[in-house]
Specification:
About 40% of the residues lie in helices and about 15% in strands. The protein contains 38 helices and 35 strands. The longest helix has about 40 residues, at about 850-890. The chain is of the alpha+beta class. The two termini are about 55 Å apart. Helix 3 packs across helix 5 (about 85-120).
Length: about 1200
Amino acid sequence: MGSLLSQLGLECGGKAVKEEERHLRANDRELNLSYKYADNAIKTSKYNIFTFLPLNLFEQFQRLANAYFLFLLCLQSIPEVSSLPWYTTVVPLVLVLSMTMAKDGSDDMNRHRCDKQVNNRQVEVLVEGELQSEKWMDVQVGDIVKLENNQFVTADLLLLSSSEPLNLVYIETAELDGCVSVCCMHAFPEPFCPCVGEVRCEPPNNRLDKFTGTLTLKGETYSLDNERILLRGCTLRNTQWCFGLVVFGGPDTKLMQNCGRTTFKRTSIDRLMNVLVLSIFGFLMIMCLILAIGNGIWEYQEGSKFAAFLPKGVNAPFSAFLTFWSYVIILNTVVPISLYVSVEIIRLGNSFYINWDRKMYYPKNDTPAEARTTTLNEELGQIKYIFSDKTGTLTQNIMTFNKCSINGKSYGELLDFSGQRVEMNEKTEKVDFSWNNLADPKFCFHDNSLVEVVREGNPEVQAFFRLLALCHTVMPEEKKEGELYYQAQSPDEGALVTAARNFGFVFRSRTPESITVVEMGELVTYELLAVLDFNNVRKRMSVIVRSPEGKLTLYCKGADTIIFERLNPSCSNLTEVTTLHLNEFAGEGLRTLALAYKDIDPEYMEDWKLRHHVANTAMDEREEKLDALYEEIEKGLLLLGSTAVEDKLQDGVPQTIEQLSKADIKIWVLTGDKQETAENIGYSCNMLREEMNEVFIVSANTAEEVRKELQTARRKMTPDGTEEPTVKKSRSGLFCLQKTETVADEPVNGEYAMVINGHSLAFALEKDMEIELLRTACMCQTVICCRVTPLQKAQVVELVKKYKQAVTLAIGDGANDVSMIKAAHIGVGISGQEGMQAVLSSDYSFAQFRYLQRLLLVHGRWSYLRMCKFLRYFFYKNFTFTFVHFWYGFFCGFSAQTVFDEWFITLFNLVYTALPVLSLSLFDQDVNDWWSFQYPQLYTPGQLNQYFSKRAFVYTVLHSGYSSLVLFFIPWAAMYDTVRDDGKEIVDYQSFALLAQTCLLIAVSIQLGLDTHYWTAMNQFFLWGSLSVYFAVIFTMYSNGMFLTLTSSFPFIGTARNSLNQPNVWLTMLLTSVLCVLPVVAYRFLRILLWPTINDKVRYKVRQDKVLPPTPRRVQARRTSTRRSGYAFSHAQGYGDLVTSGKFLRRTPKSRPALFSQTDSPLAQTQPQFYRTISEREEPPLSP
């Protein structure tokens, strides 16, 4: 109960309490439970066995239509009012409620199953000095838990001790950020047991990168920061064991805090349907009121003639009152409950198409696409904005060493005998590294010339790879002789060190004072004198080493613009050639670094070291003094060359982005990566292009500067534009209670892009500047937000939703994307080797970003098109059906008599017209998937709501009104004073009812045929089958046998055989059908001839090109670039200090005893984590 109150933020007094500070004591459950902190159980389900039925029914009856049908059922239970049998409403209503209840129950059972699986995981908890195994759900704040290698982190833990030197642990953060890189976390310098320690820290929040608190132990106070916190969702790697103190549990953990608020997502068509249902209800009341007034007048004028036959005489007002409610029941078919049954079936069927689509199946991971919800399919056809994560979504987070430039010569290309470039693929012959026993077998390179010059002893080439083997912060691990595993803080470094390893310069081991390298088979140990660490300002890192011969050398790598400024003038010619190579590499989207070195005089080095020591121990301006010393020694460098590493995009990403852009979908990238990396990926994906007019960089540090940069960018794009935005205020929703503001799009000449960092975005998202941000961003073709927090991602999505009234989609793969995924109208999770948090919170999931174009351009567009056709046709046939009743009221004394047979009324929507319209809504397509990819512009009408809107609904009602006039008055005129061939009259009510209902069914069936673009065997079968069933049913129900069996239920004896054998009856059916269809055919002919839509044009082209041209073979486009380079290096500051301090060094575990007695772990033995390039097996070519 305490945990529940904690989750709700309540105390026993019932007042909401906001936690200001968390206070806990280690291993003191009694004290910690008194604070009523949340326990470690998580709950994502909505119902339990007791609340499911009432809560689900309550939710369903919140839907206006369901409440309306319940009201109708109550009316039908009143004999004086009821004009139709009760079962005509009960059966469909129960069917709808049961189907929805079954679907909701199934979804919630899956959530229960996931919760149970997580909550029942086992972990060892320290209780009274001994380790006991407990379930995750039973762990409390303040408990000390023990984690073992490859085990998930139970809760948000304060790291106390580990099996590693200096209490370091290695964790994988895939569940948090989608990255599979391994990070290092720090505990306290010396192991201790804080069994009586007290922690005071910040309250639960969603900041993944920030933690503040203090630990008080034995009178000493220790500061706590984010480096000492293990977050739930991480996995322990390469660490035998560790102990942690539970700080936040269950819903209070940062992982769950980032999951965002779960909202019930509804499509724009759903919201429109609610408004239309309310309007239809009002229209129904008006029709019933007109008929009730007519009944009152008729009873007053004509009813007195029949007073003698009535037991209580005539009371005109009371008769009108009863007639009003009788007509409410009769005319309820304007919103039949079968509409909602059909909608659920259509959505379910289109969801199955997504699940069954083999072209969205990823064989490498055996991962199919999955529609995790069935209620949002048509919304996929209306997306205007896509918000995408970068790492793990657009990229694979895998770096490969592709090319390099050494001493003015470029390596990595393959040329044929004519000097033409050879395209490389999986079948291209790879370099044989068998001569190197320590080579990584997964490393792939194709240019044999580089191996030849290395083995020949070329000094420049060997110096190049020697630099890569020495200048880094990578940690090696060698559990078996010759089996090296690299722990790289960034995949960039791992790729470069692995390349040096394969080309004969193998980084073998390191200590705080030395680096050991195997150079072409010879073991060489260098003395490490200094590490000049990387940071975002320096954009370079250097090491100073002493060779065994006593030679001092500084090796430096960094951004080419930074390195070139510090080169010796003698390198000018080499710099020009290398610059050409760098631009070529950048043009291919590769990430580049420049490499240089410098020999140092020993006497100068001694003097520099003394000054470095003084600067490093200074109390004031330490950073500035160190930067000045680094700047001094990193001058006069000699250029060696440059590297080109590919940040591997997922397959088909550039093509997918290009296709979506052609569909007028705007893509914004929201990433936590730094600016250079985000820009580089933008160019690789063709989101940023050289031909763009300008790419605006917004990186100011104050609110006013950010505003100025945004305004400057906007004025450049629209020099003649207005300073004030055009904001359209309106109301929407039921009863127009919801106020909306829409910022109008502004015309832009040219193509622009904007890159904004998280610090500037924080200012731009403030209330007084958010519209300025939105105006500027929406003018740009591409927007990239870098260094953003999960909360900022959600805020950007909410901003666009609020002021653009457009449908949004968010796609990501990590827990840091969950809030963005939940905030968008549609959330898509990328499943695979990364974390599953995004998938669990998403509406749709698949394994590769490229499948997004098929999800939207094919499944989404078809779903939207089918749903709109279904709604237009459904409203047409039901309004036509209802209007015939309305016209008949003027000829039956407004007596609430039905114009059709009661069985026809019952079966019209459930049998006669149900399956044909379902086949239309499940199988129809204007063009096939191939043409959908060829013309992405077909997607645009969905964004503009052209297929179904309030205007389309009004046209449908007018069309129904015309058809109902034809279907009532033509049969009425044809039957008036008509006789059979034998002279007998056939103007009875039953014959007229049969003719009218038959004409209605044939007319709506022809309309269905006109709306069908794609005929299948199922369409033919259901359409002709339904007509056949109708005639079979009427001949059966109107037979003598049925009349004699149940006389009161089947009164139309002999009507079918007496009427349908007359030629004038069939001619009347033909005439009504022609008159109903003729205006539709004429209008569509003129529209296609004079005002053709994009669909009409493409369908015409499809008819012209009967045979599909072969799918062109995809060749990666080689793009030219005028950018200086594609520099990007995802490295963080501070690892140089760790390397030189020795904290990273791996020692044998036996040197560190466990703090408490250990029991045998059931976990599998640890597998070493190492950097490697991953070459995917060949997949079938992507076919649209």
